[in-house]
Design brief:
β4 and β5 form a beta hairpin. This protein has 241 residues and is of the alpha/beta class. The relative contact order is 0.19. The strands form 3 sheets. Strands 3-2-6-1-10 form a 5-stranded parallel β-sheet, sandwiched between helices. A 3-stranded antiparallel β-sheet has the order 7-8-9. It has a two-stranded antiparallel ribbon with strand order 4-5. It is 42% helix and 12% strand.
Length: 241
């Protein structure tokens, strides 16, 4: 059974006319105000933060006690396309879709909350470099474990390809500048049969002076590509596409 798939922004654009802003707003309403939710976990009475409890509270992997049907992997620059795809699959296929911004709080905001409590020198208005590295490693580890859990538990995983999510480097190898997309693809590739081989084309992103670290993600060639017609025939949970 195939679990990891890919599509692109062009195919998703065909869904846009059938989705209303209210359809997306319903999904967005799932996220709760993170500050009120996490404060008890990051300022524990015994002085020891429980990483597992914090993970379950801030990066939950279940919806109403059940696994999500579809995990959607996307660049933050393709937030709109991810919202349209999730709303369409929910509205017309009755599938529960995981989009991180719908459910999870921002990892950067979580870090800031923790660092303001444990790492900040208020007299100098600076942060302790060593302590910041320590808190960052913990938050990123918690987020990584949540990603792994939710990808493994989902019935399907869909990666949205675009000029924002991928950068085509020399020799035609697919690459991304996003460490999170790299991590998600690495997790997702374990769900794909070894014999599957497909090729696609993607535009290169515009270079800038910002620091960039690229990761090879040629494993995407093994993800079956979903066109709009494939989404129309997508079946419910536990069935194949």
């Amino acid at each position: 059974m195939y679990k990891a798939f890919r599509t692109n922004t062009e195919e998703i654009s065909k869904m846009e006319s059938s989705i209303k802003s209210t359809d997306i707003d319903k999904l967005k309403s799932l996220q709760k105000a993170f500050k009120q939710k996490i404060r008890p976990f990051i300022i524990p009475k015994n002085g020891v933060i429980n990483g597992e409890t914090l993970k379950d509270a801030y990066f939950p992997t279940l919806k109403d006690g059940k696994s999500y049907d579809i995990f959607i992997s996307h660049s933050h620059n393709n937030q709109r396309e991810a919202e349209i795809l999730a709303a369409w699959l929910t509205k017309y296929k009755g599938l529960s879709c995981f989009v991180d911004s719908f459910v999870w709080g921002s990892a950067d905001e979580l870090l800031k909350e923790i660092d303001n409590i444990y790492c900040k020198n208020y007299r100098k208005n600076t942060y302790d470099y060593t302590k910041r590295n320590f808190t960052t490693s913990h938050v990123h580890a918690i987020l990584s474990m949540s990603l792994l859990e939710i990808i493994n538990a989902s019935s399907y995983c869909i990666f949205i390809e675009s000029s924002e999510s991928l950068n085509l480097a020399c020799l035609g190898k697919k690459k991304t500048f996003s460490p999170w997309l790299y991590e998600e693809i690495e997790y997702m590739k374990t769900l794909v049969p070894k014999e599957a081989k497909l090729k696609i084309f993607c535009k290169a992103v515009t270079e800038s002076k910002d620091i960039k670290v690229e990761y090879e993600v040629s494993e995407l060639d093994n993800f079956s590509f979903l066109k709009y017609d494939n989404f129309l025939h997508l079946r419910c949970r536990t069935q194949t596409v």
